[in-house]
Specification:
By secondary structure, this protein is α+β, with helices and mostly antiparallel strands. Helix content is 35%, strand content 32%.
């Protein structure tokens, strides 16, 4: 199983149009692409224009084939009118004859790729019942000498905790293709209230206590600093928790 995240900044004037475009064009095209199991458009805060196209694939190779194929190229071209284009950002470069050139720097969607390493149940169960679901995504860095231990703890501690949580449909752990210490834990919920309730409960705190020794050294130091000196420190190594509503989604299984 392979997870592909495409981050998008949409033009605020065309958000509703893009949702229709995703439902009427993107999902039907992906349904016919070999290996694609599921596609969804998700977003975090209602007042933001940042969205994610989240897709699951049988294998990484099938996802890569799609990314370098005509379908992806065509969909990218069709999506351009809906994306935010910054008219204030320019790129300066030298031409072959050493003349300065100014070109508008258009934002490119960011693609992130993850292998599903630990999951609850079979592959097919991850992407079924996609309607009206809510996603909780936790990004975190793990110490390199604790990678295997963290995966085992996720299977032995985290998955059983999610199984007992009210409203949790599924949970799984993914590992970055490019950075082996970069992980994302994804849990699927019936609604946001149940996800937040679990996050603020004792069961969740106990679960974190059992696995946090594998987190990055900076994250552990930050936790001790905030606890002992009432300070807030942030970095790219910290555990990042985000909640996402599913705008539209479809399973192809």
């Amino acid at each position: 199983m392979f997870m592909r995240i495409l981050q998008l900044n949409l033009n605020p004037d065309y958000i509703s149009d893009f949702k229709k475009f995703y439902e009427d064009t993107v999902e039907p095209r992906l349904q016919n692409v070999d290996g694609c199991l599921f596609a969804s458009l998700i977003k975090t805060k209602p007042d933001q224009d940042e969205y994610i196209s989240l897709t699951f694939w049988k294998t990484q190779q099938q996802a890569e084939n799609y990314e370098h194929g005509e379908v992806f190229e065509n969909l990218t071209e069709l999506a351009q009118p809906y994306l935010y284009q910054s008219g204030d950002e320019w790129k300066i470069q030298l031409s072959e004859n050493m003349e300065i050139q100014y070109t508008q720097d258009e934002e490119e969607p960011t693609i992130k790729k993850y292998n599903v390493e630990v999951q609850n149940g079979k592959d097919d169960n991850i992407v079924k019942d996609s309607d009206k679901m809510f996603l909780r995504i936790v990004s975190l860095k793990i110490q390199e000498h604790h990678l295997d231990e963290f995966k085992k703890l996720y299977a032995d501690v985290v998955i059983p905790s999610f199984r007992k949580a009210k409203g949790c449909r599924n949970a799984f752990l993914t590992q970055s293709v490019n950075e082996e210490n970069d992980f994302i834990s994804v849990s699927v919920w019936e609604n946001k209230d149940l996800a937040v309730a679990h996050e603020s409960g004792n069961e969740y705190k106990e679960m974190i206590d059992k696995v946090k020794h594998t987190f990055s050294h900076f994250y552990l130091w930050r936790m001790s600093l905030e606890h002992g000196h009432n300070r807030t420190v942030k970095s790219t190594d910290e555990m990042k928790v985000e909640h996402y509503d599913v705008v539209t989604g479809k399973s192809f299984i």
